[in-house]
Amino acid sequence: METFLHQLSIEPKLLVYQVVAFIIFAGLFWKFAQKPLLNILDQRQADIQATYDQLDSDRDAMVKTRLQYEQRLASIESEAREKIQAAIKEAQVLREQMLADAHKQAESILDRSRIESQREREKAFMEMRQQIVSLSVAAAGKVLGESLDTPRHTKLVDDFIGLVAKGEVSETGRGVGGNGIGGQRGTAAG
Questions:
Q1: Which of 165, 150, 156, 161 is nearest to 184 (CA)?
Q2: Could you tell me which of 90, 87, 67 has the C-alpha nearest to residue 79?
Q3: CA–CA dist 100, 159 (Å, integer)
Q4: What is the pLDDT of residue 189?
């Protein structure tokens, strides 16, 4: 074996010294350097674990925050939808109210128009009645102012009605020109 070690250029005494020195070095290292190195490794492992824990915590917080934002967005969308629906309902109520008011106003206008039309009709009827009375009085005055026989009386009434129809007789029973019926002046004698 010594020849084999010599061939490899290894000195057996030197090898023994190196092994003993290594064992002494390992013992001293184990005694003095092991605790500080293990403490450093433990500290490094704790730092890495703390980093992982912080990342997990941040990720959980991020997920929680995202869920809160999603809930808040859903809530905002729901509120916006509710406000839009409320505005639509309010607009529909307002529209119906406006239509009802318009119908009431239209009915009121129609009622006023009917009443006014009835008043105008009554007024025209009263005016026509007054004119008929005036014309009748004028006709009676004419009849009384002249002595009439039946043909003359019939002709006088026909002439008077014709003048009334043409509008040539005023309320006083006189012609538009101030003459009597038919443009003739009635006399008491004849």
A1: 156
A2: 87
A3: 58
A4: 39
Residue 29 carries which side chain, given as an amino acid letter?
F
**More reliable by pLDDT, 100 or 170:** 100
CA 23, CA 10: separation in Å to the nearest integer? Answer: 19
Which is more confidently placed, 134 or 36? Answer: 36
Residue 79, token pair as written in the block: 């509120």
175 φ, ψ (degrees, to nearest 5): -65, 165
CA distances from 78 to 26, 42, 93, 111, 144 (A): 73, 53, 22, 48, 96
Residue 76's H or E segment, with its range, is helix 34-145
Asked whether the beta carbons of 110 and 153 are under 8 A apart, the reply is no
- What does pTM read for this prediction? 0.36
Place of tokens 């290594």: 22
Pairwise CA distance, residues 68 & 74, whole Å: 10
At position 21, the amino acid (one-letter code) is A
